[in-house]
Design brief:
Blueprint (H helix, E strand, L loop, with lengths): L18 E7 L15 H4 L7 E2 L15 E2 L19 E5 L16 H10 L10 H5 L5 H12 L6 H10 L5 E5 L2 E5 L7 H4 L20 H5 L7 E7 L3 E6 L17 E7 L14 E4 L11 E2 L9 E8 L9 H10 L2 H11 L5 E3 L22 H10 L8 E6 L4 H15 L3 E6 L1 H9 L9 E6 L12 H5 L16 H12 L3 H17 L3 E3 L1 E3 L2 E2 L7 E2 L3 E2 L5 E2 L5 E2 L4
Parallel strand pairs: 1-9, 1-10, 14-15, 14-16
Antiparallel strand pairs: 2-3, 4-6, 5-6, 7-8, 8-9, 11-19, 12-16, 12-17, 12-18, 13-18, 20-23, 21-22
Helix pairs in contact: 8-10, 10-11, 14-15
């Protein structure tokens, strides 16, 4: 594998301090980590910590760039340090001393706080988007989550009721032996479990968070930090201000820094609006939206890079009866002119490699395959399929898309293709928060039949599940990216085979087979595979720009140094 080295520009004489402003999508705010998506990890990293984390990479060819390193834990458990049992199902973590909460007494972070974090990710009000990963891996966690959800159907969803249930029930496979020792037992060995522990969902959570409903504005306003920054002020959907956390000790945190005095997140609603309080033109770092990348972003060497994205793809809401006949779904796959969408990306994102996608799992990810069962842009054949299915024009299909990135352009191009083939389609743009909610709860967020979406890998090694499991598995627990409601017993069996596989090559084969079957079923329509991109190497008046490869090559904001002259 050949990946271009990432070489930041030499820093000029600067002193520590200043204000760093980050322009980010609304849903990337440093919210309650129990509910934050993996895409919010670069921001959650500012104020939270997990058992393991990622380190930055000046040269992304370094294998350490994609390997988790100990964070709250003193070591990553292994058979060599006796932290991993012979069955590879029992992990023992010893907590790092000196890590404290931003509370009046600066209380130490304990193993019990990590247990609370695992419970809180299962909350029935706003469960973690990563819950499906853990539910299929950690012993007893799926039962804990489903029982809590069942209980919530006939009880109030207020903070006190949620906390009472959480604290009266246990996850059998997650428990603290004492303040310094945590045990996590798996239902089966997992090649990628340590990678999962770096996700926001696995953050330690203090008891103070029990006073608030997970994911609520009140929870975001009263976060207790154990990272280098704490939230001082915020206006939901508009801006967040973080300042240095006085309880944070650099000596107890090997992989984060606190170069800026203050970090401001200006949140864009995806429709071109970004609000913030006035400042004296602080240094600014842009962050790529979910669909379409960012014009200023720089591609990592495409051919050999890990972590290509499925960006964009069409998601079908299979709960809608319009998709009951597979020939109608196949017509969608044949109608979309993927080459035209590729040209659109190349015009707006020059230099960022894209490939026409036939497979659900992109290059540089476990289980990738080059097979393409549906050639691109064949409206005549699509029209014939619709005729054979007896499909008659009716109310136009609704194709939702985010306002951010190239979402509008892609949606209108696809809507035109579908209409031309005999499926009248209307593109409907939504602000980021409304779009996310429509995907999360399609049955309650208004009627839509199609959506323009993107999928970026949540980690880079042994990561077939971040596409195949998240997007395809019919799971009883919330979470994941199976927003279309796809359910196929054969695919579920292949996913289970991959999760059970002891060797990476066996897992990859099963992931590949699951993805191939789902694409043949037209659960989704892959359009493009996009090479990973990194944020600008040297934004105006910002030094210390280094990427975190497993977090979408995002900038480590704790190390970004605003331009403050000596």
């Amino acid at each position: 594998m050949t990946v271009a080295p990432y070489r930041p520009e030499p820093a000029t004489a600067r002193r520590r301090g200043g204000v760093l402003r980050v322009v980010a999508p609304t849903d990337a705010a440093p919210l309650d980590p129990s509910c934050a998506p993996a895409s919010a990890a670069p921001f959650v990293r500012l104020h939270t910590r997990q058992l393991v984390t990622w380190q930055t990479a000046r040269d992304v060819r370094d294998w350490q760039a994609v390997t988790p390193v100990p964070d709250l834990a003193l070591e990553v458990p292994s058979t060599w340090n006796a932290g991993l049992g012979a069955s590879h199902r029992s992990y023992v973590f010893h907590m790092r001393p000196g890590v404290r909460w931003d509370t009046p007494d600066r209380r130490p972070v304990t193993a019990h706080d990590v247990v609370r974090g695992f419970k809180r990710m299962c909350n029935p009000v706003r469960p973690s988007p990563s819950l499906a990963y853990f539910a299929s891996t950690v012993r007893g966690l799926a039962d804990f989550a489903t029982a809590w959800a069942a209980e919530a159907t006939h009880r109030a969803g207020d903070a006190a009721t949620l906390a009472a249930y959480q604290n009266a029930h246990e996850i059998p496979g997650v428990f603290a032996l004492d303040d310094e020792t945590l045990v996590i037992e798996l239902a089966r060995p997992a090649l990628d479990f340590v990678h999962m522990l770096a996700l926001p969902a696995a953050s330690a959570v203090p008891v103070e968070h029990d006073a608030f409903v997970p994911g609520s504005p009140e929870a975001a306003a009263h976060l207790r930090a154990n990272g280098p920054y704490r939230v001082r002020r915020h206006r939901p959907g508009e801006w967040v201000e973080l300042v240095r956390n006085p309880a944070w000790e650099p000596a107890a945190d090997p992989y984060r820094r606190a170069e800026a005095d203050r970090v401001e997140l200006r949140l864009s609603d995806g429709a071109g609006r970004a609000d913030a309080e006035p400042t004296d033109a602080p240094a600014e770092v842009p962050v790529a939206p979910a669909v379409g990348g960012l014009p200023a972003a720089e591609p990592v060497d495409g051919d050999g890079a890990l972590g290509w994205a499925l960006d964009p793809y069409l998601l079908l809401n299979l709960r809608d009866p319009v998709w009951a006949d597979p020939r109608v779904r196949q017509a969608v796959a044949l109608a979309v002119d993927k080459a035209a969408v590729a040209d659109l990306y190349r015009r707006h994102r020059p230099g960022v490699p894209v490939r026409i996608a036939g497979s659900l799992i992109p290059p540089g990810n476990a289980g990738h395959d080059t097979a393409d069962p549906y050639p691109t842009g064949d409206p005549a054949r699509a029209h014939d399929l619709l005729a054979s299915a007896g499909h008659a024009d009716g109310t136009p299909l609704v194709l939702i898309h985010p306002h951010s990135g190239l979402g509008p352009e892609v949606a209108h191009a696809c809507a035109s293709d579908l209409t031309r083939a005999g499926l009248p389609t209307r593109a409907v743009g939504l602000a980021d928060a409304a779009y996310t909610e429509a995907l999360r709860a399609p049955a309650t967020a208004g009627g839509w039949q199609l959506a323009v979406a993107a999928r970026v890998p949540d980690w880079l090694e042994h990561n077939g599940r971040v596409f195949a499991q998240a997007m395809l598995q019919a799971t009883p627990v919330p979470g994941g990216a199976n927003h279309g409601g796809y359910a196929a017993p054969e695919v579920d069996a292949l996913i289970e085979r991959a999760l059970d596989a002891p060797e990476p090559w066996r897992a990859d084969a099963a992931w590949r087979a699951a993805a191939e079957r789902a694409v043949a079923d037209v659960a989704v329509v892959p359009i493009l595979h996009r090479a990973p991109v990194a944020a600008p190497r040297r934004p105006d008046r910002v030094d210390g720009i280094t990427p975190l490869p497993p977090q979408g090559y995002a900038v480590d904001l704790t190390a970004a140094r605003p331009g403050v002259d000596e």
